[in-house]
UniProtKB/TrEMBL annotation:
GO terms for biological process: regulation of DNA-templated transcription. InterPro entries: NB-ARC (IPR002182), P-loop_NTPase (IPR027417), Sig_transdc_resp-reg_C-effctor (IPR016032), TPR-like_helical_dom_sf (IPR011990), Tscrpt_reg_LuxR_C (IPR000792), WH-like_DNA-bd_sf (IPR036388), WHD_MalT (IPR059106). Keywords: DNA-binding, Transcription, Transcription regulation. It comes from Clostridium oryzae. The keyword Protease does not apply. This is HTH-type transcriptional regulator MalT. The keyword Transmembrane helix does not apply. Gene3D superfamilies: P-loop containing nucleotide triphosphate hydrolases (3.40.50.300), Tetratricopeptide repeat domain (1.25.40.10), Winged helix-like DNA-binding domain superfamily/Winged helix DNA-binding domain (1.10.10.10).
Amino acid sequence: MNEQPILMSTRLKMPEPRKDYIVRQQLFEKLKDIDQYSVIVAKGGAGTGKTTLISSFVKEKAMTNVKWISIDEGFNNIFMFWNYFVKAVEGELGASKSKLMSLFNFNFQKGNIESLLTLLINDLNIDENIFIVLDDFYNITDSSLLQSIEFFLKHMSDNIHMILLTRQEPLLYLGALNMEGKLLVIEDDDLKLSHEHGIKFLKDTLKLKLSPKILDFMDEISEGWIGGLQLIAAAASGRNESQIKNFNIKDKLINEYVTKEIYDGLEREEKEFLVVTSILPYFNEQICSRLLSNMNFTDILGKLQDKNIMIICIDEKIGVYRYHNILKEYLNNRFKELDREKQIMFHLKAAEAFRDINDYNECISQFIIGEDYNSAMNFILNFPGNAALFSYADMIPDKFIIKNADFAYQCFFYYFANMEFEKCSKIYNNVKMNMSDDLIFSAFKYANMFVEDTFKINEVDTIQIDNIERLPLLAATKAYIFIKEAYFLYVKCKYAEALSYVDKAVDYSAKQNNLYIVFFCFSIKSQILEDMGDLNECIELYKRMQKMLSDNESIFMLNSSFYVGITGLYLKQMNLVEAKSCLENAINLIPEINFSVDRGYKYNVAEYKFIKEENDEAINIVHELMETISYKNSVYMAGLLRYMFRVIKFAGDTVEKFKLCYETMEESRRSLDSKLLYADLFFHRGEDKEALMIIDDILKYARRYGIKLKLVQASLLKISIIYNNSEKKRDVINLFREALFYSSKNSMLSPYHFERETVRKLISDYDKDIRNEMSEDQKLHYKQIMDICDINSKSILSERELDVLKELAKGLSNKEIGQQLSISLATVKTHIINIYGKLQVNNRIAAVDAAKEQNLL
C-alpha cells in the first residue's frame, strides 16, 4: 500500500441548494457586504437553514473563490483540520501548492503549526477575495486546534473571509474583530422563516399540494423552524389533511416525532437503508453497495427523495449525498439499537469501502468505531510519515496499543515529538507492566529516559545491533530503536558506537522512504561528528542534507533545523560571516520556529555573540535558556557557560549552581564539555592539581577514541595551567603541536580563539619551536590561528629581530649588521634564522618582501 492518503473532495464541496429554494432577501441584505467582514458567524440549532442560507447566497450572487469544508467530529484534531483546510484552498496557492500540502501532511509536531500557518497566510494574501466556509463548526472543541484557528484569524490578510456555521457560540475569541467592525453575526432568530417564506417553502421548494389552511397550520406549528417544516413535510407524505392536523412538534421532541410520523411509515427496505448508511459521513452507490449488497440504490434513493426525507445532495454529477444532521442524529440512535455484532459488521464493511476509494481517514475511523483496533493500527503503520493518521492513536485503548509493539513504539515517538510526555510515560508504563517478559520489550527498555529525569545512564545496557535487527518489528520501528540506542551512546560519549547505530537508523528509514527520520538521523550524526571534531566529514554530511532539502519539498520545514545545525559547524571554524548568514536564514525562514529549533537557535546566537565579545547580550540569552526545561540542569549548558564564566570571572550564582549540579550528577552522565568547564573552574580558583587530574582524564579518553575537538580544547586548557612552570616548556610545545596536528585537518579554530591570551603568549615565546617540522597544511592553519587571535608578525618578532630586519633591508652583510648593532656575528645569524622562520621565508630578499607586505618596514 504505497499510495499516499488523499482527502476526499466530497467533504470540500458546497452542498447543492435544493431546487426552488427560498431567497432570504432580508438575510441576503445583511450579507451583501460580506467581503467587508473577516469573520461571519451564522449561529442556530439543527435545521435552522444555516447551510442553505450560505449556499443559496453563493449561488444567487455567483460568488467565486468560495471554499467549503463540511466538519464532523473527526476534524477535531489539529493535524486533520489543517490538512483538509490546505486541501480546500489549494487552488489559490499557486507555485507553493505542493510544498505547503507536503509540509502539512508530513509535519509531526504541533509546535510547528503556527510556523506553517504563517506560510499559508502569506501565500493566501492575493488580490482576490477568498471565502472559506466551515460548516458545523461546533464540532471543533480541541484547545490546541482552537488556538491555532485564533492565530490564523488574527494574522490572516483582509482578502480572507471565514464563514462559521455553528449550532452554538464558537469557542473562539472574536472580541477584537467585533470592536474593529469586522465581525458579522447572524443569530438563531434571524434564521427563522417568516410566515410568507414558510408557505413559499412548503409550496415551491417541497412541492406540497395541500390546502392553504393546512399549509398555514404546518407553518404555525413549525414556528419558523425550517427543519420543522421539512419534518412535517416528510410526515405528511401519504397522509390526509385530517391526519396532518394532529401533528405536533412543539419543543422539538424530534425522536418521538420522527419515529411516529416519519420512520414508522417507511417500508422495511427503506428503513434498513437509512439506518445502516447513517454511519457514513457521505455516501454514493459504490459505498452503499458494500454495506447492503442486495439493494437497488437508485430505486431506494428516489423513493426517499419523493417522500421529502432529509437527504442533502453534495455532488449531483457523481451522485454523492449525506443526511441532514437532524435526520442523521436520529438514525444514528436507531443504528445503536442493533445488535452490537451487527453494528461492528457494518462499520468494518464501511472501513473496507472507504479504503477502496482511498479515504484513509474515514477508513481508520470506521475501524476504530467497529473496535477493530488492530486493523486501524496496522493501517496507520503503513503510512509512518503521515502525522494526521497517527493522531487517531488517542482513540485507541491502551490495552490494544500494547499488543502491537510497532504501533506502541511509534506512538511513543509521535507523542515525544509533540512533547506530550505524560502520554509517553503512560505508554511506557503500560508496556512495561504487560510486556516485560517479552523479548520485544527490550526495544522499549529505558525509553522512559527521554521523558523522565531520574535515570542513571550507567544502568542502561545498549542493545546490540544484531539483536535489534532480529526483532520481529517493522523497519520504521527499528529505525526509532536505533535512534534511541544511539542517543544513549552519545550521552555516554561513546561517539564511534553512536555513529554506527545512527547509520543503521538511516538504512531502515531509507527503506521506508521516511525522509523526516532520515534527516533527523543526519542531524544527530552531524552533532556527533561536530563534537568529535570531524568537521570535514560533518561538512560533507551537511551537503547531503542540503540536497535532501532541495530535492524534497515535503521536508521544507526542516530548513530551519539545517541552518541552526550548520551554524555550530561554522562557529567552530570561526567562519563568522557564514555563521551570521545561517542564523539570519534560520530566523527569517520561519518567523515562529518551534521550541526545539528555537532553543538551538538561541544557543548558537549566544555563542556567536560571545565570540564577537557582545557579552551582555550573550549572557541575557544564556539566562533565557536556563529557564527552559532542557537546560534546567545547567550542566547541559557547559559548552556555553565556559564563555560566560570567563566573562564573569568564575564568580556568582550561576557558577555555584553549575558546580552544585555537576557535583551531584552521576559521573557517567557528565559530558566532556562539563568536565572541561569544571576543570577550568578549579584552575581559576587556583586549584591547579585538581584541574590537571580532570584534564588528563579527558585527554586520555579523547586520544583513545579519536575525539579531536575535546583533545584540542583540553590541550589548550592544560597549556594555560602549566604555562608559567618553566620546567613544562617541552610539555607546552608538544601539547600545542598535538593540538595543531588534529585541528589543522578540520580547520578547527574556535578553541584557539577561546584560549587566545595563552595562544598569543605561546606563539610569541615559542614560535620558532612550534614551526619546526611543520607541514604545509599546518603552516596555513597556524597562520589562521594567528589571524583569529590577532597575532601579527610584528608582535612575533622581538625588538632586536626588528632591528636586524631593518639593517637587512639596507643590504648590509651579516658582519656589517653586527657592527651596526654591536652584536656578535653568531647572534646576527641566530636572529636572521628566527626572522626566516617567523616570516615563513628562506632568503634575504623574500624576508624583506614579506616584511614590506606586512608593514614591518
